[in-house]
Design a protein that fits this description.
Order of helices and strands: HEHEHEHEHEEHEHHHHHH
Largest sheet: 5 strands, mixed
Number of strands: 7
Helix content: 40-55%
Oligomer: single chain
Number of helices: 12
Strand order of the largest sheet: 3-4-5-6-7
């Protein structure tokens, strides 16, 4: 995710490469980052003492050790975090009073089609932070209290969509299509349907009905999905995801 964000910053011209410092303990990752022309280091304190903005893109379980390492030297006016389950209050408790931006992005940012939710600390709002995440997709500003719901929808949502696409492909293959053709049909169908939801003002139920005809083919599948409780299954899964997000946030 950090690589995707870095790519968006550079492609969008938000910062020049020589204004960016990346720290990581993985030499291979640093070598890849260095190819973009940014400065790389294995010393987190270098970033903490020299940067105006510091972004944390580490696993939440690693965060406490990183906080402890830099807490006494960090000089950044703004801390940006994409760590799941780490609230602004936890960031402030670890790093002191400064501006904070908490982001919940998702993996399609890797192809410039991400969806990011942004929450700012009280009294603070950064156009720069919004522009950074807009460079890899779309951004919505929300209250941080809604981030568990965001996690269960857009944060984890790509996995749900991948499962549906996988099932569409499998259904096509069972019908006699080769895998490559079934994949192309499935991907474009999902992409086109999503765009219809975006631009068409009709309720989604009307869009569903517009594809179905009484006694036709589509209604057979739609009725089967409804009988098996497809929508309830998805919502139930999202509820479990949201509860787990709440647990991690309270840990």
């Amino acid at each position: 995710m950090a690589s995707a964000i870095l790519g968006g910053i550079l492609k969008g011209g938000l910062l020049k490469a020589d204004k960016i410092v990346v720290s990581d303990r993985d030499d291979e990752k640093l070598a890849v980052m260095a190819q973009n022309g940014v400065t790389v280091t294995r010393d987190n304190k270098v970033v903490a003492t020299e940067a105006e903005y510091v972004m944390f893109a580490v696993k939440p379980q690693v965060a406490p050790a990183v906080f402890e390492e830099i807490a006494d030297v960090i000089s950044a006016s703004t801390v940006v975090s994409i760590m799941a389950g780490v609230s602004i209050s936890k960031l402030r408790a670890a790093l002191g009073e400064r501006n904070y931006a908490r982001i919940m992005p998702n993996t399609p940012a890797l192809v410039g089609e991400g969806m990011s939710a942004v929450a700012f600390s009280e009294g603070y709002r950064s156009r720069f932070v919004i522009d950074v995440f807009s460079s890899v997709g779309k951004v919505v500003e929300l209250d941080e209290s809604l981030f568990d719901a965001v996690t269960s929808l857009s944060g984890s949502g790509p996995a749900y969509v991948y499962m549906f696409v996988k099932a569409l492909i499998e259904g096509g293959v069972r019908g006699g299509l080769d895998f490559a053709t079934a994949k192309e049909l499935a991907v474009q169908t999902v992409r086109g349907a999503a765009q219809m939801v975006r631009v068409d003002s009709r309720p989604i139920d009307e869009l569903i009905d517009a594809v179905c005809s009484k006694g036709g083919t589509t209604i057979q599948a739609v009725d089967s999905f409804r009988e098996d409780g497809l929508e309830d299954i998805i919502v139930k899964g999202m509820e479990k995801c949201r509860k787990r997000s709440e647990e991690l946030g309270n840990a």
